[in-house]
Structure formats: C-alpha cells, structure tokens
Amino acid sequence: MAGKQPLNIVKMKKMKQDGVPISMLTAYDYPSARLAEEADIDMILVGDSLGNVVLGYDSTIPVTLDDMVYHTRSVARGAEHTFIVADMPFMTYHGSVDESLKGVRRLMQEGHAHAVKLEGGAEIADTVRRIVQAGVPVLGHIGLTPQSVNQIGGYRVQGKDQADAERLMRDAKALEEAGAFAVVLELVTEESAAEITQALSIPTIGIGAGRYCDGQVLVYHDILKYASPYREKRFVKTYADIGTAVREGIAQYVREVKERAFPAEEHIFTTAQKTAAAGPVYGSGKEKVPGS
C-alpha cells in the first residue's frame, strides 16, 4: 500500500507498552500478501503451515528451505510495505550454528524476509542469540509447536497444569533473554498466556491463546474458509467463506461451457469489429494481448 510505513521491532515494543494490539496473518503467495497489505495488516507470517494449506501435506515437516524461500519471495513482492516474518522449516536450526545461519541468510537475501521465526524454547535459546547477534530479528514460538507434534503427542493445548505453565514461562523468558523481539503462543491456556504476556517486555502473539496476548495471528485459509473440506477450529473465527464462493463460481463456469452459454457475444472478436470500438482486451486496455 503506497505511503504505508511498515512496522519494525521498536514500534512493536511501543505498541505493547501503549496497549495497541498487533494484527498478524499468514500469507504464502503474491495475491494473498497484496490483499493482506491492502487490508492494513501489521505483520505477515510466511508460515511453514503452507505445507498443510498450499502444498497438500498432512504436517509441516516435509516443508523444505527451498519451499520457504520461494514462497517468502512471492509474499515480499506482494507486500512491499509490510513487515514479513518467515518460518525456519523443520531441522534447519538444530544442527551447527553455521548451518542455521546459512538458512537464515537464504530467507533474508533470497526470500527478502525482515525476520525469521523459530519453534522452541530454552533448548534453542543459544541459536536465537547467535542469529540476533548476526543482525537478524527473531520471532520465537512456544506452546504447541507443529514441527514437534509427533514428540508432544498431537495437537494438544499447552499449559493446562502448573508444571507445564511454569515450563512455558521459562521458555518465554529464555527467548526474551536471547534477544527475540516477540513470541508466538500457540494453543496455550488463556491463564498461562496472560501471565507470560504480563511477565515479558516483548510482545506476545497469540493463536488459540486467549484474549490477553499483545497481538493475534491466524492462518489466511482459516479466516477465509479457503479449503475443501474445511475443518472447523475452536480458536478460529471465519470472516468470509471464499471456499464456497470459489466452488460455486467454478461450477457455474462448467455449466455454462457445457450449455454453450459461455462465451457469449460480448466475449468474442470478429473481423467486422474495429479495434477502437472493440474495447479493452485486458483490464485497462494498456496490457498487451498474449503473442502480440
């Protein structure tokens, strides 16, 4: 959006201090990023959830660094004035620091991200610290961490007992101390998320973590019901049902082709038409006809 001033990590911390909620949405390609920016979203996350909603996998684990670079670059072209965070995919930041930094470099230089997101708490704090020291903003992610779903026993709400709540608090503080500019809390009890939010000086971004986080993030395809079949989620609110609209639009197109109702007279060209009278071929008329 022309004239829009993108957020930065200093402004986000000020938003927390002032009690101004931060809006965040996932996007995975040029048109979805452009639409999100036009809707004045604060931040875009190029999540490895693209494995589920774009690439057709049943988890985020098969998503590669090449996948993330490709989709982040597409999003960056569509949202030139929005702060963009890219996920580090499965097992790209658990080996040597040098290998982790190579992945970060690719997301920043080739993908044009402004920051990276890593899943995990205290166990990855040293890696977070080294990435931050290299000059790259890091968004933490604790609670339900989809890349570890096989280890934690499925998609389960976190922080339901005192011991688990204390673990989450330790992880959040470890990420803050390591230099993370914010922390995503996914599928965390509202009570635990509220305590973490109050304890940290950096923003918390909730997804299924209740009402008291400093911001919220949801998946593009969830808020728009852009899937088939769509699986309802308790923590998601549907703002538009474009999945049904897309299906119905395509079905109508198929019917009209079968019935020879499309193309109609207004969609065709004849030798008798004069170019000036025929009207634009594409959009504003400034575009070239393919092959011309």
Automatic annotation (TrEMBL):
Enumerate the UniProt keywords alphabetically.
Cytoplasm, Magnesium, Metal-binding, Pantothenate biosynthesis, Transferase
Say if the entry is tagged with keyword Repressor. no
Q: What is this protein called?
A: 3-methyl-2-oxobutanoate hydroxymethyltransferase
The yes or no answer to whether the keyword Cytoplasm is present is yes
Q: Which organism is it from?
A: Paenibacillus campinasensis
Function according to Swiss-Prot or TrEMBL: Catalyzes the reversible reaction in which hydroxymethyl group from 5,10-methylenetetrahydrofolate is transferred onto alpha-ketoisovalerate to form ketopantoate.
Query: Entry's HAMAP family?
Result: PanB (MF_00156)
Q: Which family does it belong to?
A: Belongs to the PanB family.
What InterPro entries has UniProt attached to this entry?
Answer: Pantoate_hydroxy_MeTrfase, Pyrv/PenolPyrv_kinase-like_dom, Pyrv_kinase-like_dom_sf
Report the EC number(s), separated by commas if there are several. 2.1.2.11
Q: Where in the cell is it found?
A: Cytoplasm
Note the superkingdom of the native organism: Bacteria
The entry's free-text remark on the cofactor is: Binds 1 Mg(2+) ion per subunit.
Essential cofactor(s): Mg(2+)
Associated pathway: Cofactor biosynthesis; (R)-pantothenate biosynthesis; (R)-pantoate from 3-methyl-2-oxobutanoate: step 1/2
Q: Which residues bind Mg(2+)?
A: 48, 87, 119
In alphabetical order, the GO MF annotations are: 3-methyl-2-oxobutanoate hydroxymethyltransferase activity
